[in-house]
């Protein structure tokens, strides 16, 4: 029973993260701001993934996964690599940050945060990652956050400022 629970946490909890993230990003964004939000999300995810692969190629704290070190079997799915950083945690954290920055929806972000923590815990309990691997996944996902800082500043009325068209005299109104 323990093994099944760990497998559900380590692998299965990723599915609700994806589904809740899709729901939030499809239905909780204003139509007029979707394209820019999706561009930021794409670039943030791509940046985080690129950083993860570059950092993982340069730095590996262990050359074997925890289950290999103790001679046990893996309790969850894994790729045949040393494991730093955790791709599962990187992916879940990236989705959680996207929902947080783009929708500002506190309840959905809280649920995604809890699910991401459960995935991280499950990956460690399944012995496919060390705590450093999952912390690395979170930290590297946070490197992609810079793209979200390119949001348009809100005016005093709370509405997004729009570019004004030049008037006939060439001045911006």
Distance between the termini: 67 Å
Structural class: mainly alpha
Global outline: globular
- Give the biggest beta sheet: none
Mean pLDDT: 89
DSSP strand tally: 0
Q: Radius of gyration, rounded?
A: 20 Å
Proportion in helices = 55-70%
Low-confidence stretches: none
Q: Could you outline the blueprint of secondary structure elements for this entry?
A:
Layout (H helix, E strand, L loop, with lengths): L1 H11 L1 H14 L6 H25 L7 H5 L16 H17 L2 H20 L5 H13 L30
Helix pairs in contact: 1-6, 2-5, 2-6, 3-5, 3-7, 5-6, 5-7
Description:
With 173 residues, this protein is an all-alpha fold. The chain has seven helices and no strands.
Keywords:
mainly alpha; 7 helices
Question: What's the short version?
Answer:
The chain has 173 residues and is mostly helical. It is built from seven helices and no strands.
């Amino acid at each position: 029973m323990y093994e099944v629970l760990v497998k559900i946490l380590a692998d299965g909890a990723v599915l609700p993260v994806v589904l809740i993230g899709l729901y939030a990003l499809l239905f909780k964004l204003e139509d007029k701001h979707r394209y820019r939000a999706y561009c930021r999300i794409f670039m943030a995810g791509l940046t985080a993934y690129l950083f993860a692969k570059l950092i993982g190629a340069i730095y590996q704290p262990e050359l074997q996964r925890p289950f290999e070190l103790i001679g046990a079997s893996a309790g969850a799915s894994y790729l045949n690599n040393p494991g730093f950083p955790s791709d599962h945690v990187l992916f879940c954290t990236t989705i959680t940050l996207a929902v947080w920055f783009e929708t500002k929806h506190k309840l959905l972000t809280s649920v995604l945060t809890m699910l991401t923590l459960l995935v991280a815990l499950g990956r460690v309990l399944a012995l496919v990652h060390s705590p450093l691997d999952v912390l690395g996944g979170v930290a590297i996902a946070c490197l992609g956050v810079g793209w979200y800082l390119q949001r348009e500043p809100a005016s005093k009325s709370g509405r997004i400022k729009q570019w004004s068209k030049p008037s006939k005299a060439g001045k911006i109104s």
